[in-house]
Design goal:
- The chain has about 300 residues and is mostly helical.
- It contains twelve helices and two strands, in the order H-E-H-H-E-H-H-H-H-H-H-H-H-H.
- The chain has a two-stranded antiparallel sheet.
């Protein structure tokens, strides 16, 4: 009976070990970054919603990307700021599993959105005259639904068992948020499936998405190189710069986090923690900036929004 009670005890989140005395100072840059993410992605969504000039497939996918980044931020922000600002470390098990589900789900959704955006650029450059007939509103909605369903359904199998696993080991987690790989190690049960499934899932989502994106850009480059005018080639490639930048930002952080987890076991704990925050904060922070700087239509919409002009 004592064992089952201990099993149901809340988990304890961890901030920056050894720096607890300055957590309130560390929280300041986190607060600024979170605010910037909410403001930047919220502005992108508002622009696409209100500006009819942005009612195109490319911007619909951008809206899903911004929504995904907002979702990731709102999922991690309460516990991260709770630990750093209020030293509130306890999190109920069910809340922890739910947070873990959304964190991993939204990561896969973001990868899927970047793949969909690569498809959009592929059609725009390879078949510009048929762009609107291929990427109809109906097809864009189906692609968006597929991206969401793939993310939300694929994480059910490894997360669901967490709810009935017994937890008799230490309940201390290594981050200020819940991750599947962190939680499953605390279970006193056979977690073989939970070890194997994520590896297969990563191979079938992140790895496969990257391969398809790279292949699509090889075909795009081949098409662009066949354009006679140098000015037209530059114009065509310029429409891909924002997407390529977002792809690099997202997948470089994914690769960096993966390498740290796999090969950096002897690296200081702060390196692991910092890399995990970079993974969750850097892409949502950078994506609105990239599209605001590199996309003229977004720039014009921002000027209209803040100048009050129609």
């Amino acid at each position: 009976m004592m064992w089952s009670n201990y099993s149901a005890a809340p988990f304890l989140l961890t901030g920056f070990l050894g720096s607890e005395a300055i957590h309130h100072w560390i929280s300041i840059p986190f607060f600024v970054i979170y605010f910037s993410i909410l403001f930047g992605n919220g502005t992108i969504l508002l622009l696409i919603w209100s500006d009819h000039g942005l009612h195109e497939p490319m911007y619909y996918f951008l809206a899903v990307l911004a929504g995904t980044d907002l979702g990731m931020t709102l999922t991690t922000m309460p516990t991260v700021l709770g630990v750093l600002l209020l030293d509130h470390r306890e999190i109920p098990q069910s809340a922890c599993f739910t947070q873990s589900y959304f964190i991993h789900t939204l990561s896969i959704v973001e990868s899927g959105v970047l793949l969909a955006m690569a498809y959009d650029r592929f059609i725009a450059i390879r078949a510009p005259l048929r762009y609107n007939s291929i990427l109809t509103n109906s097809r864009v909605m189906k692609i968006g639904l597929w991206v969401l369903m793939r993310g939300f359904l694929s994480l059910v199998p490894p997360i669901l068992p967490l709810y009935w696993f017994p937890y008799c080991r230490s309940h201390v987690l290594s981050h200020a948020f819940c991750l599947h790989q962190d939680v499953m190690k605390l279970a006193c049960a056979d977690i073989t499936f939970n070890h194997i499934y994520p590896v297969v899932l990563v191979a079938l989502t992140f790895f496969l998405d990257v391969l398809i994106i790279v292949f699509s850009y090889i075909l795009i480059l081949k098409t662009v190189m066949g354009i006679a005018s140098g000015e037209e080639r530059a114009k065509a490639l310029n429409t891909c710069v924002s997407h390529i930048s977002c792809v690099l930002v997202f997948y470089i952080t994914v690769i960096g986090l993966t390498f740290i987890h796999r090969f950096g076991k002897h690296a200081p704990h702060v390196v692991h923690i910092t890399m995990s925050y970079v993974y969750f904060l850097f892409p949502p922070f950078m994506n609105p900036i990239i599209y605001s700087v590199k996309t003229k239509q977004i720039q014009k919409s921002i000027i209209r929004l803040f100048s009050g002009k129609k």
